[in-house]
Specification:
This protein is of the alpha+beta class and about 90 residues long. The chain contains four helices and two strands, in the order ααααββ. It is globular and about 35 Å long.
């Protein structure tokens, strides 16, 4: 599991490469970028301590920017990370 330091460092680097990201978006993606896993709006809401609408628009924005692929599974949308070209763990 990624340490807090790793996530913080990745989040900072993400903000340098993509200054248009909001801090919570960068932070969430930094800790939730494992290829093959799926993440939800509820996870964003809980982990970034925000309201549902903010979580939804944040995840939507990340998907529009190419960080996640949005797909409908059952009745809910899930987001799976798309591999980034910039390596955040260097």
């Amino acid at each position: 599991d990624d340490s807090l330091e790793t996530i913080e460092a990745r989040s900072r680097k993400l903000k340098e490469i993509h200054p248009q990201l909001k801090p919570k978006q960068a932070h969430f993606y930094a800790g939730h970028c494992t290829i093959g896993l799926h993440y939800t709006i509820d996870q964003f809401k809980k982990e970034e301590k925000t309201v549902y609408e903010t979580a939804r628009t944040s995840m939507e924005d990340l998907a529009n920017r190419g960080f996640y692929k949005k797909e409908l599974i059952g009745k809910r949308f899930v987001y799976s990370p798309i591999p980034l070209k910039d390596n955040l763990d260097e």
